[in-house]
Structure formats: C-alpha cells, structure tokens
Amino acid sequence: MRTLIVHILGITAHPTAAWVTQQTRQLLWQPGDPAADFTHLIHDRDAEFTAAFDAVFASEDTTVAKVPPRSPNCNPCAERFTRPAREECTDRVLLFGRGHAEKILHDYARHFNNHRPHQGRDQLAPSDNPDVIPLPAARIKRRQAVASLINEYHRAS
C-alpha cells in the first residue's frame, strides 16, 4: 500500500536551486536513513528542481520523475498535502515570519502523518500500521494541535 509521508525541509520566501538541493542533502544526511523508504520522487518542472537536485535522489536509488509540462493535476500526492494544509492551517492563522510559519507547518505535518485519517488507507493515518487492530477505548481525550486549529483525539489512560 502506498503511503504519503510529508517532510517539511525548510521555509524561505525566495527559494533557489542551490537552497532546494541543500535542503534535500540535509534530509538524506539525517540519522536513521530517511531515504531508505523512498522509492519514487515526483516533482514539477520548476526551475528550482535542477539536475543536481535529481542527482541527490538518484544517488540513493530513488526513481525521479517529472510531471508533464503545464499539468498541475498530475502530481496528486503533493496536492493531497498542500490543499488541506492551506484550508486547515495556513488560511486560518496569521503567520508572523519564517520561524512561525516553519513551526506551524512542522506541527501540521506531524498531525498529517500521525493523526489525520486518510480515505485511501481505510481512515488510518500514514504512520499507522494497517495490521494492528485498535481496541475500543472507554474514554477519549482531546488534545489541541497546530496552534489550536485542529483537535486530535487519543485513548485516555
């Protein structure tokens, strides 16, 4: 089963090809080998995605594919994150700079990966194990996440 896990690498108002490539290298240099699970990378034809960017992923045996020109609907995985991130998060909060935007998006990515149900995964979050059957809970505890924009529910212990 395909799983979309979101990684927020960095935030800048003016991305360049060198900046994007460096952010990618820093992701792949992290301990625990995050690229071990990467099999494919699909990206658009933006000028920031140069041959050097593609080479970073190719060196990790990741297949790199570009969407056709002028075809924004050909990258549904990116749209599956960007649309809800805008609607549920960034459109509802006033961002006070790069650091604040980075914190909010990191919080939202954590929520998206660990708690937000996905229809394509039978209402499981991307990081949930589909082989584990959850036991019914007697009590449910609510936790506010992403600057109190979203509620997450957990079993009370």
Outline the fold blueprint.
Layout: H1 17-28, E1 40-43, H2 51-58, E2 63-66, H3 76-88, H4 98-114, E3 140-145, E4 150-155
Parallel strand pairs: 1-2
Antiparallel strand pairs: 3-4
Helix pairs in contact: 1-2
Report on the structure:
- With 157 residues, this protein is of the alpha+beta class.
- It has a single domain (17-155), classed as Nucleotidyltransferase, domain 5 (2-Layer Sandwich), CATH 3.30.420.
- The chain has four helices and four strands, in the order αβαβααββ.
- It has helices at 17-28, 51-58, 76-88, 98-114; strands spanning 40-43, 63-66, 140-145, 150-155.
- The chain has a two-stranded parallel sheet with strand order 1-2. Strands 3-4 form a two-stranded antiparallel ribbon.
- Helix 1 runs parallel beside helix 2 (51-58).
- The longest helix is centred in the last third of the chain and has 17 residues, at 98-114.
- The model has no long low-confidence stretch (mean pLDDT 82).
- Please, how many domains? 1
Distance between the termini: 31 Å
Q: Class, according to the CATH hierarchy?
A: Alpha Beta
Q: By helix and strand content, what is the structural category?
A: alpha+beta
Q: What is the typical, i.e. mean, pLDDT?
A: 82
| Spatial arrangement of strands, main beta sheet | 1-2
Q: If helices are DSSP runs of H or I spanning 4 or more residues, what is the number of helices?
A: 4
What CATH architecture would you give?
2-Layer Sandwich
Q: What is the approximate shape?
A: globular
Per DSSP, what share of the residues sits in E-state strands of 2 or more residues?
A: 5-15%
Helix content: 25-40%
Give me the strand/helix succession: HEHEHHEE
